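Customer ticket, subject: "Can you confirm the structure for Palmitoyltransferase?"

Message body: Hello, I'm evaluating your service for our small team and ran a test protein. I'd like someone to confirm that this is what the system normally returns, since I don't have a reference to compare against.
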Amino acid sequence: MTGEEKAKTFTQVPDVRLRRCGYCMVKQPLRAKHCQACQQCVRRYDHHCPWIENCIGERNHPLFVLYLGVQLTVLLWALQVAWSGLNFQSFSWLWLQCHLLLLLSFLLLTICTVIATLLLGSHLYLVSCNTTTWEFMSRHRISYLKHCKVENPFDQGVLLNLWRFFCACRLMAWEKLYPSEETELV
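Agent reply: Thanks for trying us out. I re-ran your input and got the following:
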Protein backbone atom coordinates (compact mmCIF):
# COMPACT_ATOMS: atom_id res chain seq x y z
CA MET A 1 0.00 0.00 0.00
CA THR A 2 1.40 3.37 -0.95
CA GLY A 3 1.66 6.30 1.42
CA GLU A 4 -1.09 8.11 -0.47
CA GLU A 5 -3.53 5.19 -0.10
CA LYS A 6 -2.60 4.83 3.56
CA ALA A 7 -3.15 8.57 4.13
CA LYS A 8 -6.68 8.28 2.72
CA THR A 9 -7.60 5.62 5.28
CA PHE A 10 -6.74 7.75 8.32
CA THR A 11 -9.76 9.07 10.16
CA GLN A 12 -10.71 10.55 13.50
CA VAL A 13 -11.21 7.67 15.91
CA PRO A 14 -13.51 8.25 18.85
CA ASP A 15 -12.36 5.11 20.72
CA VAL A 16 -8.74 6.32 21.04
CA ARG A 17 -8.94 7.84 24.50
CA LEU A 18 -6.42 10.22 25.96
CA ARG A 19 -4.55 8.76 28.90
CA ARG A 20 -4.07 10.55 32.18
CA CYS A 21 -0.47 10.77 33.32
CA GLY A 22 0.00 9.00 36.63
CA TYR A 23 2.63 11.50 37.75
CA CYS A 24 1.51 15.01 36.75
CA MET A 25 -2.20 14.10 36.33
CA VAL A 26 -2.65 15.83 32.95
CA LYS A 27 -4.37 14.27 29.95
CA GLN A 28 -1.62 13.14 27.63
CA PRO A 29 -2.12 13.51 23.89
CA LEU A 30 -1.35 10.49 21.74
CA ARG A 31 2.39 9.69 21.52
CA ALA A 32 3.20 11.61 24.72
CA LYS A 33 5.09 10.10 27.64
CA HIS A 34 6.13 11.22 31.07
CA CYS A 35 9.91 11.49 31.38
CA GLN A 36 11.19 10.26 34.74
CA ALA A 37 14.41 12.29 34.46
CA CYS A 38 12.74 15.64 33.65
CA GLN A 39 9.55 15.02 35.66
CA GLN A 40 7.29 16.31 32.88
CA CYS A 41 5.16 14.97 30.04
CA VAL A 42 6.68 15.34 26.57
CA ARG A 43 4.68 15.42 23.31
CA ARG A 44 5.84 12.83 20.74
CA TYR A 45 8.42 11.58 23.22
CA ASP A 46 11.51 10.12 21.56
CA HIS A 47 14.01 9.66 24.39
CA HIS A 48 15.83 11.42 27.20
CA CYS A 49 19.29 12.33 25.97
CA PRO A 50 21.97 12.21 28.68
CA TRP A 51 24.45 14.15 26.51
CA ILE A 52 22.33 17.28 26.29
CA GLU A 53 20.48 16.46 29.54
CA ASN A 54 17.06 17.07 28.01
CA CYS A 55 14.12 15.18 26.59
CA ILE A 56 13.84 14.83 22.84
CA GLY A 57 10.26 15.35 21.73
CA GLU A 58 8.06 16.99 19.14
CA ARG A 59 9.43 20.51 19.50
CA ASN A 60 13.17 19.80 19.58
CA HIS A 61 13.57 16.51 17.69
CA PRO A 62 14.42 18.22 14.34
CA LEU A 63 17.05 20.31 16.14
CA PHE A 64 18.45 17.15 17.73
CA VAL A 65 18.83 15.50 14.31
CA LEU A 66 20.52 18.70 13.07
CA TYR A 67 22.79 18.56 16.14
CA LEU A 68 23.78 14.98 15.25
CA GLY A 69 24.54 16.09 11.68
CA VAL A 70 26.73 18.98 12.85
CA GLN A 71 28.44 16.72 15.38
CA LEU A 72 29.22 14.18 12.64
CA THR A 73 30.57 16.93 10.37
CA VAL A 74 32.90 18.24 13.09
CA LEU A 75 34.07 14.71 13.92
CA LEU A 76 34.83 13.99 10.25
CA TRP A 77 36.78 17.25 10.01
CA ALA A 78 38.74 16.45 13.20
CA LEU A 79 39.39 12.93 11.91
CA GLN A 80 40.84 14.37 8.70
CA VAL A 81 43.02 16.84 10.63
CA ALA A 82 44.32 14.07 12.93
CA TRP A 83 45.01 11.80 9.95
CA SER A 84 46.95 14.54 8.17
CA GLY A 85 49.25 14.83 11.20
CA LEU A 86 50.15 11.17 11.12
CA ASN A 87 53.05 10.33 8.81
CA PHE A 88 53.68 6.58 8.78
CA GLN A 89 56.69 6.69 6.41
CA SER A 90 59.23 6.86 9.21
CA PHE A 91 57.47 4.52 11.64
CA SER A 92 59.71 3.56 14.59
CA TRP A 93 59.65 3.38 18.38
CA LEU A 94 60.71 7.02 18.58
CA TRP A 95 57.95 8.02 16.14
CA LEU A 96 55.39 6.15 18.29
CA GLN A 97 56.57 7.94 21.44
CA CYS A 98 56.26 11.34 19.74
CA HIS A 99 52.91 10.67 18.07
CA LEU A 100 51.18 8.45 20.65
CA LEU A 101 48.78 11.17 21.79
CA LEU A 102 47.84 12.00 18.19
CA LEU A 103 47.37 8.32 17.37
CA LEU A 104 45.15 7.77 20.44
CA SER A 105 43.17 10.90 19.52
CA PHE A 106 42.68 9.53 16.02
CA LEU A 107 41.41 6.21 17.38
CA LEU A 108 39.05 7.97 19.81
CA LEU A 109 37.77 10.20 17.01
CA THR A 110 37.19 7.11 14.84
CA ILE A 111 35.08 5.48 17.57
CA CYS A 112 33.08 8.69 18.14
CA THR A 113 32.54 9.11 14.39
CA VAL A 114 31.18 5.57 14.07
CA ILE A 115 28.82 6.15 17.00
CA ALA A 116 27.63 9.52 15.63
CA THR A 117 27.07 7.98 12.19
CA LEU A 118 25.01 5.15 13.67
CA LEU A 119 22.96 7.56 15.80
CA LEU A 120 22.27 9.90 12.89
CA GLY A 121 21.44 7.00 10.58
CA SER A 122 19.05 5.40 13.05
CA HIS A 123 17.28 8.69 13.78
CA LEU A 124 16.91 9.48 10.08
CA TYR A 125 15.46 6.00 9.53
CA LEU A 126 12.96 6.44 12.38
CA VAL A 127 12.03 9.92 11.12
CA SER A 128 11.44 8.57 7.62
CA CYS A 129 9.07 5.97 9.14
CA ASN A 130 7.41 8.59 11.41
CA THR A 131 8.12 6.65 14.57
CA THR A 132 10.04 7.49 17.72
CA THR A 133 12.77 5.63 19.52
CA TRP A 134 10.37 4.98 22.39
CA GLU A 135 7.68 3.57 20.05
CA PHE A 136 10.26 1.48 18.18
CA MET A 137 11.75 -0.02 21.33
CA SER A 138 8.58 -0.38 23.46
CA ARG A 139 5.81 -1.08 20.96
CA HIS A 140 4.61 -4.10 22.96
CA ARG A 141 4.03 -1.94 26.06
CA ILE A 142 2.37 1.14 24.47
CA SER A 143 -1.41 0.99 24.78
CA TYR A 144 -2.24 2.57 21.43
CA LEU A 145 0.23 0.37 19.51
CA LYS A 146 0.13 -3.10 21.07
CA HIS A 147 -3.35 -3.94 19.76
CA CYS A 148 -3.01 -1.99 16.51
CA LYS A 149 -3.34 -4.16 13.39
CA VAL A 150 -1.12 -1.80 11.37
CA GLU A 151 2.60 -1.99 12.10
CA ASN A 152 3.01 1.80 12.15
CA PRO A 153 -0.24 3.77 12.09
CA PHE A 154 1.55 7.13 11.79
CA ASP A 155 3.60 6.33 8.66
CA GLN A 156 2.47 8.43 5.68
CA GLY A 157 5.27 7.66 3.27
CA VAL A 158 8.91 8.70 3.42
CA LEU A 159 8.59 12.07 1.69
CA LEU A 160 5.55 13.24 3.66
CA ASN A 161 7.11 12.01 6.91
CA LEU A 162 10.33 13.92 6.22
CA TRP A 163 8.41 17.03 5.12
CA ARG A 164 6.25 17.06 8.25
CA PHE A 165 9.24 16.41 10.49
CA PHE A 166 11.64 19.02 9.12
CA CYS A 167 9.35 21.62 7.53
CA ALA A 168 6.03 21.66 9.42
CA CYS A 169 6.34 24.10 12.31
CA ARG A 170 3.04 23.28 13.99
CA LEU A 171 2.14 20.67 16.57
CA MET A 172 0.32 17.62 15.23
CA ALA A 173 -2.94 16.20 16.52
CA TRP A 174 -1.82 12.57 16.26
CA GLU A 175 -5.29 11.29 17.10
CA LYS A 176 -6.50 12.47 13.66
CA LEU A 177 -3.92 10.33 11.88
CA TYR A 178 -4.64 7.13 13.77
CA PRO A 179 -6.49 4.56 11.63
CA SER A 180 -9.80 3.25 12.86
CA GLU A 181 -9.82 -0.36 14.05
CA GLU A 182 -12.52 -1.45 11.61
CA THR A 183 -10.48 -0.24 8.64
CA GLU A 184 -8.47 -3.17 7.29
CA LEU A 185 -5.17 -2.10 5.80
CA VAL A 186 -3.49 -4.67 3.59
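A couple of notes from the result: The beta strands are 19-20, 27-28, 33-35, 40-42, 47-49, 54-56. The longest helix spans residues 93-129. Feel free to reply with more questions.
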